[in-house]
Amino acid sequence: MVDEVWEKRQMAHWLRLLRSGDQQAFGRFIDKYRETVFLCCRRLGLREDEIEDVASDTFLAAYKGLSRYTGQSSLSTWLWSIAYRKAVNYLRKNRRQQLESEVDEQIVDSRQQEPAAPIETEETERIVWDAVERLPRLWAMTVILHYREQKSIADIAKIMNTRENTVKTYLFRARARLKQLLPAAFGADDSGG
User: Fold this and answer.
1) 141/167 Cα distance (integer angstroms)
2) In terms of pTM, does the model score above 0.70?
3) Of 5, 38, 94, 115, which residue has the fewest beta carbons closer than 10 angstroms?
């Protein structure tokens, strides 16, 4: 409880510095969340040169929007939603890709199965995250946000600007696809016999 109060005070102090235009505080903000923004952009399929542009746009938008940040969601959730929107808009504008239609096509092809077993070792974890990288973009994004970034279904829906039921569907289908992919990754036979 004491740690939680201390963290809230620290966050409030940091936000005051950021909102006041403190360049050092904003530099720390970028350092702290740079990999988060890059992960979001990579997961949506941007190339490294595109990621730099989108990350710059994301941090500029965050800087300009700090006065409107209400604290209803965590700062990282708020930044994820900005990065997600900037990356999707970049893809739509510069590549004319329709992410939603890509996912819809892949949903039709998927089969519904039970969730995968929990991760037990570092090697297992690496194999699982490699398999996540092979999922459709939006499915992988929900898995990363939920399991790696520890975001709730509601937070993911805010970030992706979609309904919670859609996020649940993405997670369900991602787990089903992982159930198909992982036996081969571990060299196991999934035929059941």
Assistant:
1) 10
2) no
3) 5
Residues 2-39: tens digit of each pLDDT: 667 767 777 778 788 888 888 888 888 899 999 989 98
- Does one domain contain both 106 and 32? no
Which of 94, 113, 139 is the last residue in one of the domains?
94
Question: Of 5, 161, 15, 14, nearest to 86 (Cα)?
Answer: 161
pLDDT tier, 98 (very low <50, low <70, confident <90, very high otherwise) = very low
For the stretch 56-84, pLDDT in tens is: 999 999 988 888 888 788 888 889 989 99
109 inside domain: yes
User: What's the CATH code of the domain at 150?
Assistant: 1.10.10.10
Cβ-based neighbours of 61, under 8 Å, separated by 6 or more: 82, 86
CB atoms within 10 A of CB 113: 15
Domain total of the chain: 2
Write the CB contacts of 131 (distance below 8 Å, at least 6 apart in sequence): 178, 181, 182, 185
Are 130 and 58 members of one domain?
no
